[in-house]
Write a structure and sequence with these properties.
The complex is a heterodimer. Chain A is mainly alpha-helical. Chain A is built from 12 helices and 3 strands, in the order αααβββααααααααα. Chain B contains 19 helices and 22 strands. The chains are: A mainly alpha, B alpha+beta.
Chain lengths: 366, 561
């Protein structure tokens, strides 16, 4: 068979289209959720939308770019990736560079550009784990073998938790568990990995008692409607107001500055209000489509690195969607976590789109 | 893996289904509190009219002005316009807006329609207006204590305005706007107008023509006797409708002296209902009624109409000497029958009656004539009066109660007791409300309630004739009107201060009624501390005559032939 005659596989085009449309839809929802607040606070109704459109452009460029970078080359970047990520995470704590908002130092700024290192760290970690287990498939079965994975994971978690950012820490933790599991570990090793999790929960609560307050506010938000319970109550009001078919696009009431973070972490509440339960089902079907395609790409990939990398990136996306949905609907205690591809925030948008390009590249491989 | 994903999505869907569809309406209801801001629409207050539908208290259409600091675009301009239109302190208002502590400021109440029309032309964001009430009283100070006045938010504070506030006030409505979190109207505000339900009209039993006649007569005696205070009630003895009620000095309902609480409290007091006084001889009507009824019932302790009372000026009871006000010299107050004792208002005769009937019997009559208890008039703050408890009463007390001392009553108590004594023996609950006119025009008429039946028709008729005699030939002559059967009884009581007789201080009174055979009008005149001549027969009786004469003219009542 002549190599030149082989037509290169087209790959998973529907995935790319779906991701792109989601990002555009995100801009629409951000406009609806933020135009009033942006008008009052910045005198520009399009303040958040303009920023997001730049993100969509850069993200699309990144996605198209990663489509054409053979994923196998990424394996070389496993160490640079985690080192850069760790440096960026550490930079957050450098006073001149780190940016504090709402009591958490999660961003770093260079000139006019602000990035959120923890968003990058998730993907860097996924890349590292995939590469590590692809190179050393037998290590996953021994406690000693998984130690590097565990060590890097815990280091990242510690750096992220002291920002503090509970939700991304949780995502990294869950990502680690899932990847070790998917790598074909045994029960003993898996149980060993669970130990830090069991230790972490009480330690975190003792270190920062506000978490306990949040927990009680989550159980009965109306006990402190103006403090801890406020965010959740407002989110529930938005969802409740939406009902089955919603109030219609742009007709949210909660966007009138009642719901904080309406354009970012709680954009799903506004979607639920304007599009209703029905609209959310369609939205989650799209999310499920991305996750399904991601795992399908992983399963079809004959290469172990490709399999783990596709699984990892898909997991990063899927875990975030699920955690965000659970937070917004008041199923788990509220934490700040963006809804990937939709929420305002360029770091998350660009890197998520880039990761989808990587998935596409994996789908094109033999 | 697939199973796990399916499970997680099912969990999310179940939760969303619950929040959005099951819990949704409750959440929406809770949230509506924060989504809307309301401007009250004050219900139009029900009018108060007299028994003939003459409006006594009506409304002017005025407006309340509200301001939401957060929604104001240009505070300086807004404050300048508002302070000019409603003559406010611009600095203070600007400061209030700047503080940002309250979400809503009431800028002005009861502002005129013209000023609001001007306000509308400025189209100021954050400034709202809604209709409110300004009470307008047609007769200024006439009937002022009975009508009462309202607070500047429209709530009744005294009189009928207070007693019937629930009927008059109606139900306020509201205009609700959707606003953002700080009260700025949303881009496409949803405005919901819920209508106010106007209050119902109340009609009083008062006849404004009679009221004005009584006001005129009382003002004139207030001036001529140089009295401290004068009061009067005119009622219909057949059903105890209050036809007029005067307390003077009074105040202008359209210009209530709100800044001077002490003056306002004094002038707005419905003295004839809320204050007590020692009635003196007018109380003899009750003693006489008890005697006549007991005699008719065959009680041997009661005196017959032909019984001649002992002519002595004094009676000795419990070692104290009780004297008649008259010196009994030169054949005065000698060999009197009950009718003559009433004519002369001879104290010892009524002491004899009270003591002869005894505490138990006499107190039964006092109770059934309504003493020692409120009459139940539909008015706030009615006084109980003071009656020595039956278990504590000594003979010397009983002897004095017989002619109206050692007892304190309200004017309304005495008027009602006399009315029951001469109307055939029926004691109704006196009332000021004739009817409530509902919004549809339907009139709900108050029905008089019979409370007691102290004496028989026959006893009542005998007593009425005797009291007619008091006016034709006794101490009540100055109330006599040629061709009309007027009955009545005078009263002059010394005032007590700190337990001692206050020298030169008297309460002169007269209770009169006509026609004596079937009384339609009964008037009680009380002149507190007249200067100079102080006898009820001279001071008070002519006032009743003046009022009765006016009533005869007003109602075109034909003389008795």
């Amino acid at each position: 068979m002549k190599r030149l005659g082989v037509k290169k596989k087209a790959g998973d085009i529907p995935l790319l289209i779906c991701v792109f449309l989601m990002a555009v839809f995100g801009c629409l929802m951000i406009y609806s959720a933020s135009s009033y607040t942006a008008g009052v606070q910045y005198g520009d109704k399009l303040y958040f939308v303009k920023k997001q459109l730049i993100g969509v452009l850069l993200g699309t460029a990144a996605m198209v770019g990663t489509c054409f970078i053979p994923y196998k080359k990424l394996i070389k970047f496993r160490y640079p990736a985690i080192i850069i990520a760790a440096i960026l995470l550490a930079l957050v704590f450098v006073p001149a560079i780190g940016i504090t908002n709402y009591g958490a130092t999660r961003w770093i700024g260079f000139g006019g550009v602000t990035i959120q290192p923890s968003e990058i760290a998730k993907y860097a970690y996924a890349l590292f784990v995939a590469a590590f287990f692809a190179k050393n498939p037998e290590k996953v079965k021994t406690i000693k073998g998984v130690l590097p994975v565990l060590g890097v994971g815990i280091a990242f978690c510690v750096l992220i938790i002291i920002e503090p950012n509970m939700s991304i820490t949780m995502c990294v933790g869950m990502l680690m568990l899932c990847l070790v599991f998917l790598s074909g570990t045994n029960l003993k090793t898996f149980a060993f990995i669970l130990i830090p999790f069991a230790v972490a929960v009480p330690v975190l609560i003792i270190l920062e008692p506000y978490r306990l307050q949040r927990l009680s506010a989550f159980l009965d938000p109306w006990a402190s409607p103006k403090d801890e319970g406020y965010q959740l109550i407002q989110s529930l009001y938005a969802l409740g107001n939406g009902g089955l078919f919603g109030t219609g696009l742009f007709n949210s009431t909660q966007k009138y500055r009642f719901l904080p973070f309406a354009e970012s972490d709680f954009i799903l509440s506004i979607m639920g209000e304007e599009l209703g339960f029905f609209g959310l089902i369609i939205f989650f079907a799209c999310c499920a489509f991305i996750v399904y395609r991601g795992f399908k790409i992983a399963r079809n990939c004959k290469d172990r690195f490709g399999y783990l990398l596709a699984s990892g990136f898909t997991l990063v996306y899927g875990i975030q969607v699920v955690v965000n949905a659970l937070v917004v609907s008041g199923t788990i205690p509220p934490t700040g976590l963006p809804l990937p591809l939709i929420s305002s925030g360029n770091t998350s948008l660009i890197i998520t789109m880039a990761s989808m390009g990587v998935l596409h590249n994996i789908s094109r491989s033999d | 893996m697939g199973l796990a994903i399916a499970f997680i999505f099912c969990l999310i869907f179940t939760r969303l289904f619950y929040v959005q569809l099951v819990w949704g309406s409750e959440l929406k209801y809770k949230a509506s509190d924060q989504w809307n801001r309301e401007i009250p629409v004050i219900a139009r207050r029900g009018i108060i009219s007299d028994r003939n539908g003459q409006i006594l208290a009506g409304n002017l259409t005025t407006y309340s002005i509200f301001l939401r600091p957060n929604a104001v675009k240009n505070p300086e301009h807004t404050v300048t316009v508002l302070s000019e239109l409603f003559s406010l302190d611009a600095g203070a208002l600007l400061e209030k807006i700047g503080e940002g502590k309250v979400s809503e400021i009431t800028v002005a109440r009861q502002t005129s329609k013209e000023s609001v029309e001007k306000l509308i032309t400025y189209n100021l964001p954050g400034v709202y207006y809604s209709r409110d009430n300004s009470r307008q009283y047609a007769y200024n100070d006439a009937l002022c204590q009975v009508l009462g006045f309202t607070a500047n938010d429209g709530t009744g504070l005294s009189g009928a305005e207070k007693y019937y506030n629930d009927i008059l006030s109606g139900t306020d409505g509201e205009i609700s706007y959707t606003t953002d979190i700080v009260g700025v109207e949303t881009e496409n505000p949803v405005v919901v107008y819920s209508e106010a339900k106007a209050g119902d009209e109340i009609r009083l039993t008062v006849d404004m023509d009679i009221q004005l006649a009584a006001e005129k007569a009382m003002r004139s005696v207030y001036a001529s006797a140089n009295a401290k205070r004068v009061s009067c009630v005119v009622l219909n003895p057949q059903n105890f409708d209050i036809l007029a009620m005067v307390n003077y000095p009074s105040y202008d309902l359209n210009d209530v002296p709100r800044d001077d609480t002490e003056t306002l409290n004094a002038l707005s007091r419905n003295s004839i209902v809320c204050d007590i006084y020692e009635p003196g001889s007018t109380f003899k009507v009750v003693t006489a009624a008890a005697n006549i009824e007991e005699h008719l019932r065959g009680n041997s302790k009661a005196f017959s109409e032909s019984y001649i009372f002992n002519s002595s000026r004094t009676r000795s009871v419990d070692g104290t000497k009780i004297k008649c006000w008259s010196d009994h010299a030169n054949g005065k107050h000698t060999n009197q029958t009950l009718a003559e004792a009433l004519n002369n208002s001879c104290n010892p005769c009524f002491t004899d009656i009270a003591l002869s009937l005894g505490t138990g019997t006499f107190y039964n009559y006092l109770n059934s004539f309504g003493f020692g208890n409120v009459t139940g008039l539909d008015f706030n703050g009615e006084a109980l009066g003071m009656l020595v408890p039956q278990s504590l009463v000594r003979d010397c007390d009983l002897a004095r109660i017989g002619f109206g001392q050692t007892v304190a009553v309200t004017g309304i108590q005495l008027a009602c007791a006399v009315a029951a004594a001469v109307n055939g023996g029926k004691y109704y609950i006196p009332h000021l409300l004739k009817s409530v006119v509902l919004s549809g025009g339907k009139e709900e008429i108050y029905k008089p309630l019979l409370k007691f039946n102290p004496i028989s028709e026959k006893a009542s008729s005998i007593l009425a004739s005797m009291l007619e005699g008091v006016v034709t030939e006794g101490s009540g002559k100055k109330a006599y009107i040629e061709g009309y059967r007027v009955g009545g009884k005078t009263g002059t009581a010394q005032k007590y201060e700190d337990g001692h007789v206050a020298s030169g201080k008297y309460v002169s009174s007269f209770v009169g009624f006509f026609p004596a055979d079937k009384p339609q009008y009964l008037a009680l005149i009380i002149v507190d501390e007249p200067q100079g001549v102080y006898y009820g027969s001279t001071v008070a009786a002519p006032v009743a005559r003046e009022i009765f004469q006016d009533i005869i003219t007003l109602k075109n009542i034909q003389p008795y032939v």
